[in-house]
Amino acid sequence: MRSHTRLLTVLDRAENGPMLEEREFDQLVANTVRELTLKYGIKYNRQEAINLSDDLADRLFEAGMELATRVGVYCTSTHRRLIFSEAEIREALRFAPGELEIGSGLDRVIIKNRVPEDPRIPANTGGPYGTPLTEDLYTYIMQSYVQEPIIDAVVNGTFATIYGRPPKTHTPWEVLLAWREVELSKAAAQRAGRPGISLGCVENAVTEIGELSGTSYGGFTPVDWHHVCFTSELKTSYALLIKVAHLIQTGCIIHDFCNPIYGGYAGGAEGVAMVAVAGVILMAVVNMSTTHSICPTHPFFESDTAPEIVWAISASQQALNRNTHLLTTVMTSPVSGPGTESLLYEAATIATAATVSGTARIDGVRSGAGVCQDHVSGLEARFNAEISHAVAGMPREQANELIKEWQQHYVPLLDKKPVGQSFTEVYDLKTLRPKDHWQKIYDEVKERLFKQGVQFK
Amino acid sequence: MNRELLDKLQDAAANGEVEKAAAATKEALAAGMDPIDIFENYLVPVMDQVGEKFGRLEIFLPDLMMAADVAKAVKEVIEPSIKDRATIGEGRSCVVLGTVMGDVHDIGKNMVSLLLEVNGFKVIDLGTNVPVFDFIKAAEKEQAQIIAMSSLLTTSMPYMAELIKALEETGKRKNWKVVVGGGPVSPEWAKSIGADGYGKDAREAVEVCRRLSVE
Ligand code: B12
């Protein structure tokens, strides 16, 4: 792929870039973000749920670009900064794909870039997103997502145990974890009648070991989507670059993600938005990834649904989608879990904020902040996707008013972490359909949203 | 009450003015103030405020970094003039801290690290991806009282159990208190692996380390 040609440059810079202690780099990021927030006049307006100003979005893009060129990416293995000139970055962005086919055979889908208020519907993925799952339930839970036709691609969960033993990473167990993920996620796809659906993997690859092993003969394929992140903020390492090198040599689709932390080195909402922009730009350059995800995270709720973060997501997505053709993605990561109304309001909020901000693909739902074993189900992912279909083309002003209303239903609960019920409590394992009480909550919330003007297809 | 010292320390902590804090402390010492008084009645309340503000997210991690630098600077100035070291910062011992093997999640760990420093603890931060025996080696070298581990992954949590098991099997369990925390870690799990303490957030981490230091 022509956007995969920078590997040697990246590796050279990781060895030859300017040296710096990690703490100094953190300070550099913090100081530069503060300076650029003032210079570009980036201001979060608490009165609005999402950004409504094109001008602010464009200034935010330029601020993110300046941040990217000035601080670069820190490699924690070599203690060096990988610096790229603005010309190099702009060229990388120019040759980054604006369209991508994932999956195989009859299950291929195409993801296209979008712009804010674009009437074209975004692509959608669904899955437990790394949430630990009971081994015996893994295939059932995965199937609950694959069987939803609205979902274009799935993303795997992780294992709570491996053959009943502690799933210890960075050991031979990680190899087994990766292969169990290959085996059971493919089984779920097969059972649901979508053997070629693209699988988001290797979720059990905490280190490079799982990715290298799971993406080899008989394992995950080039048209699955392979995760490589940046650590917060704007950092990489040899472990991550090993994944990149392997995925490029095997011609795989690379999906990146970075989760700027609210209240962390990026600071508040403005800084989170700026680091999200810079992060996506730099991941496109360094990870040579084709889809780019952000999930800014609240330090105490561990979700991306707090109002400050919703705004930061919308602003950064508008900045990127107005000024590049990158395939952006946003993940819904709520505090609530299955069987709760608040989960659906959190999902509606993120899916709407992202869709009207031009995001190319809506991902999720990582229910219960992704830490509560088995507290995930296909129904919320279906809902998340249905929302994105319904609001595509909606003016941002209208979305803004809806989100403000929805936030009243869940913001007071953020610190209560209403993780709801586990998969077996909300789904019937025999029929693999939602149980009545969960279906009823879903129907009722949909009905209410419909009356508010959400045109479900 | 030396109002001026309090104001100066407060300003310095808010703006990261390390030299200003050190100078104000030196002045206070020269004027005959008791170093322990400075620590307990001036530095600690200022830093408590910092911690509380962070708990409400009125300030962020970079502010915490600055305040931690100020706390360290003040401690360095007063330490030599304290004869009976045992009395300073009672309940604020040396903590060896890190994110366990295979795991690179460090934001929570950094928050814990800074808040401990802000509260007068000596923190040896080993960073991320720390092998079990590196914790133990560092704790021995630094004569630490507490080993604190952070994990965000169910796949790295087993290393916490492994460390405690290793301490037990090498007859070293009594040498250190072991504290655990991080997203998926629960108080029940902490108990089940025989940890001495657990904290659900950075403020609880400080509390539990304080409690374990005086025990
Ligand atoms: C941000 C984040 C990332 C960032 C981390 C950035 C960084 N530098 O830290 C990035 C993008 C790098 C990342 C990567 C990955 N992540 Co991640 N990540 C998260 C997320 C969203 C939030 C974590 C966070 O920073 N929270 C905010 C901080 C402030 O909270 P905290 O760490 O819990 O710390 C607080 C307390 O716990 C406590 N505390 C923390 N440590 C300690 C220690 C002691 C002693 C005490 C007393 C208290 C204490 O105090 C802190 C302050 O209040 C979580 C989701 C979640 N719900 O936690 C997933 C999550 C942890 N990640 C997950 C996964 C799977 C991964 C990856 C493996 C994905 C992949 N396939 O590549 C990689 C792993 C890379 C690796 N080798 O570790 C899973 C883990 C699932 C599981 N099986 O356990 C989670 C749960 C999400 C999910 N479902 O996918 N991730």
Give an account of the 3D structure:
The complex is a heterodimer of chains A (457) and B (215). In chain A, the strands form 5 sheets. An 8-stranded parallel barrel of chain A has the order 5-7-9-10-12-13-14-15, surrounded by 7 helices. Chain A has a 3-stranded mixed sheet with strand order 2-1-11. A two-stranded antiparallel sheet of chain A has the order 3-4. The model of chain A has no long low-confidence stretch (mean pLDDT 97). The longest helix of chain A has 20 residues, at 172-191. In chain A, helix 6 (172-191) crosses helix 7. Chain A is 44% helix and 12% strand. Chain A is of the alpha/beta class and 457 residues long. Chain A has 15 helices and 17 strands. In chain A, strand 13 (291-294), helix 10 (307-323) and strand 14 (327-331) form a beta-alpha-beta unit. Chain A is globular and about 60 Å long. Chain A has one domain (99-451): TIM Barrel, CATH 3.20.20. By secondary structure, chain B is of the alpha/beta class. Chain B folds into 2 domains: 3-83, Methyltransferase, Methionine Synthase (B12-binding Domains), Chain A, domain 1 (Orthogonal Bundle); 94-213, Cobalamin-binding domain (Rossmann fold, 3-Layer(aba) Sandwich), CATH 3.40.50.280. Chain B contains 9 helices and 5 strands. Chain B has helices at 3-15, 18-30, 35-55, 61-78, 107-118, 132-141, 158-169, 187-192, 202-214; strands at residues 94-99, 122-125, 146-150, 177-181, 197-199. Chain B has a 5-stranded parallel sheet, sandwiched between helices. In chain B, helix 8 (187-192) links the parallel strand 4 (177-181) and strand 5. In chain B, helix 1 (3-15) packs antiparallel against helix 2 (18-30), helix 2 packs parallel to helix 4 and helix 6 (132-141) packs across helix 7 (158-169). The longest helix of chain B is centred in the N-terminal third of the chain and has 21 residues, at 35-55. The chains are: A alpha/beta (457), B alpha/beta (215). The complex binds cobalamin (B12). Cobalamin sits between chains B (102-109, 111-112, 148-150, 152-155, 179-184, 199, 201-202, 205) and A (129-132, 158, 203, 205-207, 227, 229, 231-232, 257-259, 261, 297, 299, 302, 366, 369-371).
